[in-house]
Each structure stands twice: as C-alpha cells, then as structure tokens.
Specification:
Helices cover 69% and strands 7% of the residues. The chain is mainly alpha-helical and 182 residues long. The protein folds into two domains: 9-41; 76-179, Orthogonal Bundle (Arc Repressor Mutant, subunit A). The chain has a three-stranded antiparallel beta sheet. The model has no long low-confidence stretch (mean pLDDT 88).
Amino acid sequence: MTSSNSPWQRTQSVKVAARAGLTDRLISTKLAAVSTAFAELSFEVTHRVRNTCLCLHLQQAARAVARRFDAGLRPLGLTNGQFSLLMSLNRPNPASIGDVSALLAMDRTTLTANLKPLERRGLVTVSIDDADRRSRRLALTPAGRALLVAALPVWEDQHAAIEALLTDVDPNRLRSDLRALY
C-alpha cells in the first residue's frame, strides 16, 4: 500500500484483509472436519443421499416431465418452457415482466432472454408501459395465440399421460405439496 492511498482506500484494504483472514481461519478449522468426513464418506452414504435427496428426485422428475412435453410440442416448434411462457401471457391485458417472472418463478434476466426468440418469431410483443416508461408490457400476438390454440391439445394429452403414471398419487395433492416449496 502506498502513501498516496486515501484513508477510505486504506480502510477498505483493512476490511478486505480482515475478511480474508477470517476466511482462512474458517477454512483451516473446517479442514480437520472435512478430512474426518472424507474418511467416513462411504459408498453407503452415497446410496443414502441418492435415495433420499429431495432435490435430486425433484430434478429427475422435472427433467423427465420436461422431456415428455418437449417431445410433444416439438412438431409445433415449441419447448415446454416456451409453452408455459406463452400461456402466462394469455390474459386480457398485457402483463408486466415482474408479474410473468413471479408466475414462472424465473428471474427477469432469464425471462427477457426467453422472450427474445418468441418475439423474433412474432409470437409476443414487448412494449413500453404507458404508466411507467421504464417498464415493459408483454402480450401475445394473434400468431402466438393461434400457436397456443394448436399446442393446447398436445399439452392436454401429455398432461393426461403423466397423470396416468401417478397411480398411487392424487395429482391435486401433489400440485399442492409442490407449491409449498416455492
């Protein structure tokens, strides 16, 4: 550190160094625990995690369901995510980006990226909000609505097929239980 550093810069450097020191102490303290855990990490632990991990099982189920819907929607040039996005815009008034991102549990940046191909295809419009010029409103175009009309029977067929696989589960209860997670 040179003498030309301002007091604020010196204070910031001390704070960064203090955080780094704390991190080093935490890491060195945890290393002993990690090496003990490593020695105790048996293949049985791997099986237990594999068989009980809710995150893993939800990811596997989500991927399997997504693949089924993607396969059904592929002839229409849609993915399951695009179908959900288009369906979220099927409303009387243009939606805000915030409303749609909340509905789809998707951050705004990802939503914006997912809108671009749909906008290029002429399926959605993104316009400036009249009430707040910083905000954008999203709407289906007639072509987007027509594609949704064509896609709905595919969605219904895939949905019925998936529900039929859930022989010991009430699908409404499953949906309710899953909503508790988000």
